Amino acid sequence: MAALLAWAIGCGMVGAQTPAEWRQIGLARRGQGDWPGAIAALEMATTQEPQNPTSYVLLGWTQHLAGQSAPAARSLWQAIARQPTHVEAFQALGIVYLVRGEVTPAIWSHLWAAVLNPQGEIAPYNLSLAYHGKGCRPWLWPTVGGRQRWSPKILTPGWLWPWPTTKMAIRRRRARLYKRHVNSNKASTIRGFVERI
């Protein structure tokens, strides 16, 4: 801790007193690409306010960006230990696992983030990346009005949702696009439609 404080003094970061100020300094340093400075400032925020999961999420994500995957996972687990429903912590942890090549923990992290935030778009997208990394076909998420929707009912034992296959979804989308094309006042030929795609 003393070495961290000495480093912070040497970098001109001694003016910050509150954890919020340390987080702001850490984010500013991260934006400048100063990974050691950003990590040190965010560690000071977690030291001063150890029960705040947001500080741990920011620290973990910064460590991940700096290429420190093991400390990043530890920091993100610290955030989850403090608030087990912190969606951003699970999303960041899933990405850390995915980049490390640990696909199964990545799938579980993103799946839990999707359950915690059913209206979110990040977790289903990251979950499809994880499934792709596993070599599985990504789940097709039902879309309503262009927004992805998630139903936590699919995790209920014994409950099966008839998910359409990817090929059927592509056909449906192309059919909707073709109908939109035909209904517009442009040439309604298949050639014109194909050229637009």
What does the model show?
This protein is mainly α. Helix content is 65%, strand content 2%. The chain has 10 helices and 2 strands; from the N terminus they run ααααααααββαα. The protein has helices at 2-10, 19-31, 35-48, 53-65, 69-82, 87-100, 103-116, 122-134, 166-183, 190-196; strands spanning 143-144, 147-148. Strands 1-2 form a two-stranded antiparallel ribbon. It is elongated, with a radius of gyration of 22 Å. The model is unreliable at 138-165 (pLDDT under 50).
Short description:
This protein is mostly helical and 197 residues long. Helix content is 65%, strand content 2%.
- Strand order within the widest beta sheet: 1-2
Strand content: under 5%
The biggest beta sheet reads: 2 strands, antiparallel
Measured distance between first and last alpha carbons: 58 Å
Spans of at least 5 consecutive residues whose pLDDT stays below 50 are 138-165
Mean pLDDT value: 75
Number of strands: 2
Radius of gyration: 22 Å
Q: Which descriptor suits the 3D outline? A: elongated
Distinct helical segment count: 10
Helical content class: 55-70%
Which structural class do the helices and strands define? mainly alpha
Order of helices and strands: HHHHHHHHEEHH
